[in-house]
Write a structure and sequence with these properties.
Strand order of the largest sheet: 3-2-1-4-7-6-8-5
Helix content: 55-70%
Distance between the termini: 62 Å
Shape: globular
Mean pLDDT: 86
Largest sheet: 8 strands, mixed
Strand content: 5-15%
Number of strands: 8
Number of domains: 1
Number of helices: 14
Amino acid sequence: MYNFVTTLLGALFVLSVILIWFMIAYQLVLTVAGFFHNWGSAKEKREIDGMTHLEYPTVCVLIPAHNEETVIRGTVEAMMAFDYPHDKLEILVINDGSSDNTGPIVEDLGSRDGRVRCYNVPKGEGGKGKSRALNLGLKQTNAEVIAIYDADNQPLPDALKYLVAELLIHPDLGAVLGNFRTINRDRTWLTRFISIETMSFQAILQAGRWALFKVSTLPGTNFVIWKSLVDDLHGWDEDAITEDSELSIRIYMRGYKIKYIPFAVTLEQEPETMSVWTKQRTRWVRGNNYVVTKFFKEIPQFKNKFLAFEVLYLLLLYYIFLIAIGVSDLIFILSVSQLIAIPLPGPYTAVWILAVILFCFEIFLVLSYEGMDSFKNFVMAFLMYFTYCQFWIYVVGRGIYLDYIKREKRTWTKTVRFKLGEQAEKSSG
C-alpha cells in the first residue's frame, strides 16, 4: 500500500510539473507574440489615422444599465465625446428596471443631445441579466454596427472610430475589441492587482493569441460587431451569464474572426473590495462552466485545428489554472517541510521557485511596454502570485461547487459601483 501511494504521488508530481511548465512555456510564447502585436499595432494606428476615404457606417452604442446612477452620467458623456460622424452615432442606454435615478439622468442628457436615448425596459421583461437587456436593446435600432459598453466605462474619444475602422478594412472580421484599463487603479491593493491582471490578460492571451492564431475573445465591453451578424446568430444567449465568451465561440463557428487592437482604449471601474470581487469572479467562473457544457462536444468539429485548440484552452483555462496553482503550492510545501518523501529525483523546490520567477518576468515584460516597468510594480507582481492568484483557487472551486455539486441556478449578479474620487481620475491618465 505504501509503495502504491508513493508511486501515485510521484506520478502526480511529474504530471503537475509538466502541466505547470507547459503553461509557463506557452504563456511565455504568447507574451513575446503579444509584444510584437502591440509593437506592430502602433504602425497600424498611424495608417488608420492617415485614412481619409473610409465611409463610416451607422453605429448604435448599447449600454445595459441597472441602478447605475453612480456612474452613468460620466459614461454617457464619454460616449457623447466620441470622435465619430455626428449623424451616424446613436447612444442607447437600456434602463433595465432601475429603481434609482438612472433613467432621469439619461433623459436629461438626451434632452441636450439628440443622439442619446433611454430605452426603459417594460415592467416584467427586465431584471433578467445583461444578455436579455442587450437583446431588447438590439430591437430598438437599425444601425449597421453595434458597439457594447458597460455602464461604468469612459472610453477615449478615438476608441470607437478605431474599432469600426478595423471592421471596414478587414472583411473577414465579425467583431473587433479594444483595450480596457482600470480607472480606479490606485484606490486599493486589490485594484492594483486587478490592473496588472487585466493588462497581462490582454497583452498575453488576447494580443498573443491574435498574433499567432488570429484568435481573440470578446470582453464584456469596448467592442463592435456587425448587427447583421448578431441578428444571424439570433442575438445573445440569455442563459449565458458570461455572454461575451459564449458569443465569441459562435462567431468563430460561423467563420468570422475577432481581432484585438490595443489602441482603442476604454477606462473601466474594477471591484474595490474582496466581497464584490468574489461575486464578480464567481459569476465569470460559473458562466465559463455553462459555456464548457454547451460547446465542449462541438470542438472536434472545428475545421481550424489551431482554433479548436485555442477554444479548448480557453474553456479549460480556469480549471488548468486551479490545478496548476494548487499543485504548485503543494509541491513547494511538501518539498520544504519534507512531510512526504517523493521517491523521484528532481529539485522540486527549485522548480517551484523558477516558476514564480518566470511568472514575474512575464508580467514585468507586459508592464514594460505599458510604460509601468518600475521596481514597485515588479514587487507588486511578485506579491500578486502569493496573494491575488491564490484567491482564484477559492473562486474557481466555489464556482464548480455551486454548479456541479449544489446545482444552484445561475443568475446575473450586478457588480457594485463606487464613486470615483480625484485620485482615481488622475491615476487613469
